[in-house]
Each structure stands twice: as structure tokens, then as C-alpha cells.
Amino acid sequence: MFKNIQSSAADPIMSLMEAYLQDANPHKVNLGIGLYYDEWGNIPLMRAVQQAERRLLDAGQPHGYPPIEGSAPFAHQVQALLLGADTVGDSRHLATVQTVGGSGALKLAADFLSHYLSRREIWVSDPTWANHWAIFGGAGLRVNAYPYFDNDSGELRFAEMLETLGALPAGTVVLLHPCCHNPTGTDLSQAQWRATIEVMQQRRLLPLFDLAYQGFGGGLEEDGYALRETLKTDLDFLICNSFSKNVALYGQRLGALTVCCRNAADAANVKGALKTLIRRSYSCPPTHGSQIVETLLADPALRRMWQDELDAMRQRIRQMRLQLASGLERGGSTLDYRRIRDCHGMFSYTGLQPRQLDELRHRYAIYLVEPGRMCLPGLNPANIDYVTSAILDVTRSA
Ligand code: LMR
């Protein structure tokens, strides 16, 4: 029955992690997948999460079915986190559903755009997260790319980006990264966001924001800037967000899709459509992760604790950026160290060449995603000198 099924190409990010896990080199360093590791190289169990889980366990609740869209308090917390507690009023009408991670939110958005809005294409940044192509392409949309970043010069292609968006027909879906651009780590400034939003408003485009790293750029508030500016317009838009990274709940697969609509009737209909898509896909979401987030966001002390932990994570990444950049500068690397120093979030597009990446992987067991994306939280005090001298070595022999 299955003899005609072709072998599938491996996912570039997940397969790299598997290769890393199998590598026997004791000095190996994982700078591949977008995962936050602490200074000892471990995935953190945040203290605020631990305390929320303890409360849930003590409450001894049975594991009943949640509503198809997830719990109402969770949706409300998500809206306040994305758009600000004071901006979630009746001026705008929001439909929020819990999803299976940020990827699940994107897949649900893709199905919604295709089945309910008859959209046949989407525009993503060049470059973007590889799975954007897979998710939207897999849902039957043609994926096009607008200019975003020049990997040779390390510069944004902002003028070309605006020009491309400015020529799109009304109603075209445009995917944007509000913060911590994946894979380049290079974000728009606030002035560039305002210019982009103005073009989208003039052209009546349909923005879809993928917010997977809220809190890792400038902070929780700062990273919502593009969303809050768009909220001031009369545009309808979609937000996919994830709690994998900022609550370190990777395996709980927790995210949300929020659709900002013009009026209450639209929002109710959109929510109904999303519920239909969820019910006929996986019926309803898992509850453990959303109960953790609901608990920690509702309690001021736990929320503070979580925010402080998240701030410390962001600052640790910054520290690693500065340390690696100055090591490369001092060592006279041919690599432009500013591409590491000046980026935001977990990633930098380093500008390392394929041969150098290959040497890093096979001589030093240092793993980066092609074509040179480095995930900075993989660095820590125990491995940063090793990584610095390995990069100096492979870039010296360039
Ligand atoms: C990444 O870009 O590495 C992360 O978003 C993890 C993933 O699922 O690819």
C-alpha cells in the first residue's frame, strides 16, 4: 500500500538537534535550535512555573475536557499580555483560541485563511523561519517572500521591503515578526514599524504577526510595540503567539491565535470558525500548560517572579552576545562581530560561510543552523572561550 511514498526531507532544525544529541564529542555545543539554555547549559524549569504547578497539584483538580477554544481566563490573559491590559477594551474585538504551541497557531491561521477567507497566498520575510514555508505551503497557500535582510552585508533591506509591500493587492496576507526576527535577530526600529504599518493600512493588507519570543527582545511591553501600533489602526489582523520560550514550556505545546476584528459580530463568527477548525482537527487543547500560564499571570507575586526570571534570561543572552563579539574583535576575526553584538532575541545571522559552518560542526562539534544562524543561549561561561577560539580559527583560515 505504501510503496509509492517517497522518503521525506528531514526538518533542518529538528534534525540538527538529533545529530547534536548523538554527537559523542564531550565539547559539543548546541547553537542550533531556538531553545533557551541557562548558564549551566540546562533548559530551565522556571521557579514561577514550579510554584504554579505545585498549586495546581495541591488543588487536586480532575482532568476534564476544556472548551474547544481553551479556557476564557487564559484567552483574556493572552490578550492583555499581547496588547496591554488597558488596550483590551470594547474599541476592538478579539477572538482568541488556545493552540498547540506557536506552530499550531500558525497552522490554524493558515487553515482559517484558506478555508474561510479563500486566501491563496501569503508573503513572508526573506529569510524567515523555515517552518513558515512548510506550514503555509502545506495548507495550500503559495508562499512568496518580501525582501528583508541581506546576508552578505548584514543589513536590513527596508526600502525594498516597503516597496514590495506597497505594491501588493488589498487583502494580501503578510507575515511579520514583531520582535526577535527568526532567523536573523535583526528587527525593525519603532520608526520602521510605523512606516510599515502605514503602508499596510494604505494598501489594506492583512497582517499576521508571529510572536514566538515575546520578552526576549526589549521586554514584554516593548516586544508588543508593532501589535499595539497596529491596534490603533482600523486594520483587521492576526497574532500567533507561543509560550514555549518565554515560560520555557516547550513540551507543553502552548500558544494562542488571536484575531483582531472590527466588531463583536465579526469576532464571534471568527471564533466560531476557529472552533470548527479545532474540533475537526484535534477536538480541544491540552490543559496543563494553559493552567500553569493562567495561574502565574493571575497572581501578582508569581507574575513578578516570572517577569524577573525572563528579564534575567534576556540579560544573560545579551551578556553572551557582548562577550562573544568582544572575543572575536580582540582576536581579529574576519567575521563582522557587530552581527552578533547588535541583534535581539535568541538569534544572529552570523555571516559564517558554508565551509566554516561545516568545519565548526565536524572539527569542533559546534552546531549552527544553515546558513549561519546562531542561537546565542547555547553559549555559557563554560563554553564561550571554546566557541570563540573555534570561530577565530575557522574564520582566520577563510
Ligand atoms: C527554532 O527556530 O529553532 C525554534 O522555533 C524551534 C523550532 O521549532 O524550529
Note the beta-strand portion: 15-25%
Low confidence ranges: none
Measured on Cα atoms, how large is the radius of gyration? Answer: 21 Å
- Structural class by SSE content: alpha/beta
Order of adjacent strands in the largest pleated sheet: 2-10-9-8-7-3-4
Describe the largest sheet: 7 strands, mixed
Short description:
By secondary structure, this protein is an alpha/beta fold.
Question: What can you tell me about this protein's structure?
Answer:
- With 398 residues, the protein is of the alpha/beta class.
- The protein has 14 helices and 13 strands.
- The strands form 4 sheets. Strands 2-10-9-8-7-3-4 form a 7-stranded mixed sheet. Strands 1-12 form a two-stranded parallel sheet. Strands 5-6 form a two-stranded antiparallel sheet.
- Helix 5 (130-138) links the parallel strand 3 and strand 4.
- The protein is globular.
- The model has no long low-confidence stretch (mean pLDDT 96).
- The structure holds (2S)-2-hydroxybutanedioic acid.
- (2S)-2-hydroxybutanedioic acid is lined by residues 13, 33-34, 129, 131, 182, 212.
